[in-house]
SIS domain-containing protein (Janibacter limosus), 347 residues
Amino acid sequence: MSSIVTVMADEIAEQPEAIRRTLDALLPLREELRGLFAGRRRVSFVARGSSDNAATYGRYLLEACAGVSAALAAPSIATHYRADLDLTDTLLVAVSQSGATTEIVECVDWARSHGAAIVSVTNVADSPLAKGADVALVTRAGPEVAVPATKTYLTQLVAMAVLADALGADLEQDLARVADEVAGAVRGAELVEPAVALLRDAAHVVVTGRGLCLGTALETALKIEETSLTPVRGYSYADLRHGPISVIEPSVVAVLVAASDGPMLEPMTALADDLRRRGARVVGIGGDTPFARTCDVHVPGPDLPEPVAPLGLVVPAQLLVEQLARARGHDPDNPRGLAKVTRTDSH
């Protein structure tokens, strides 16, 4: 791999400090979050693009670790159907790195008019989303120049973990270790090179994960697709098992994302073995030693327990994406046809 330095690579390298700044800013807001949720029963997330993948992690984290019912809301229910729903028992979490995605801002206005309390997750303190929230979780990623979200996405995951900790999960001690684990992953950027070599000429790529790691898998698929300009399918473990696995063949490279512990590790290891028996080549990110041995190429993940593992797992995935784009002759900083602010038709 060449020594060309991209803005995306620089911003990946800035993430340990971005995590530390974001934790310092958001952990003191936990009491406000608890107070806002008091008397309410559920959390709904609204987001698009990479922010939607961060929200997927938040949903799993709240339900699996905080015992709070959570779901992903469809923005069109507010912006197009204008449904009349009773949201008086709901905390709406609106996620947008820019805080300026018109569709998401409209969802906030709609949800508030129907009784919801509002938390925003954004990287811009004076954005409409931050100003319109009851509690604004403003991440401290700093300005992000490269079009593919890296440090803004990871600090969104930090915000999700802080929210879950505030609502009943016990994550503070594990969160304190995340920045150091991410720094280690950044220093080991060369460890993704065998995976890049395997993916560079792949005719078909699928990416999968399960549970708390699903959002990371979907984000990895999205970023490969954005930067390498090739179709990539991101599946949950269950969706891949129910149908698409029947068309797996030797032309497919499958990327599997797994934590090093937790109830999803054994099924993900079995899936890696199954995919290889069907002829696919498998790139594993994270997992444990048996998982690594089952893959054709393995990229080490963080030494973090499953609830916060996605914050570390996304970093080797980002490094892989950046290097793969360059290996395929593309500019990862400026993927064709993309911009930083998501624009979705709201009319």
About this structure: The chain has 15 helices and ten strands. Strands lie at 42-46, 69-72, 90-95, 117-122, 135-138, 204-209, 232-236, 252-258, 281-286, 297-299. The radius of gyration is 19 Å.
